[in-house]
Amino acid sequence: MKLPAWINTAVAALAGAVLPACDGLNLQEIRPGITTQAEVRARMGEPGRIHWNDDGSAVWEYNRQPNGVHCHMITFNHDRIVAGVEQVLNERNYARIREGMSKDDVARLLGAPGSQRVFANLGEEIWEWHVEGIPPIDETYFVVHFSLDEASVKKAAKRIERRG
């Protein structure tokens, strides 16, 4: 049975509002050096992606795109104990995006984008993350432009959509 579009929209909006609140409570209970992978999975659910490091450690991605404005990366050491928790959609990481970086490098740093669009006429693929803005009443996005030829970063910037 197909649900009416307004129900799907309402459910998505509710999830976008509730998940960050749940994340805030759950993330407070995750302690580096103490919390295990099993405990994180029980609190946060399955990660959206798992990034593996050369030393055998792993980074779990909990991304709330496109409706939310957070992406938490939880790093585990080789013993499967939390080594760190970071909300990666931040100014420090935006500044780390450089011309020539690969799509994998960007996704590893910022998590999966909220949207991806290809503009063949411009020779670009554009990734956008919905991010916290100042003032928070505006819709703010971090945008990365990739060259279709090299599949690497051409430029990055913030985009702000003013609300009514």
Bin the helical content. Answer: 25-40%
CATH fold-level label of the largest domain: Beta-lactamase Inhibitory Protein, Chain:B, domain 1
Count of distinct strands: 8
Classified by CATH, the class of the largest domain is Alpha Beta
Largest sheet: 4 strands, antiparallel
| Count of structural domains | 2
Strand order of the largest sheet: 1-2-3-4
User: Which blocks of ≥5 consecutive residues have pLDDT under 50?
Assistant: 5-21
Give an overview in words.
- 27% of the residues lie in helices and 32% in strands.
- The protein is of the alpha+beta class and 164 residues long.
- It folds into two domains: 83 residues, 2-Layer Sandwich (Beta-lactamase Inhibitory Protein, Chain:B, domain 1); 71 residues, Beta-lactamase Inhibitory Protein, Chain:B, domain 1 (2-Layer Sandwich), CATH 3.30.1450.
- It has a four-stranded antiparallel β-sheet with strand order 1-2-3-4, with helices on one face. A four-stranded antiparallel β-sheet has the order 5-6-7-8, with no helix packed on it.
- It starts with a helix and ends with a strand.
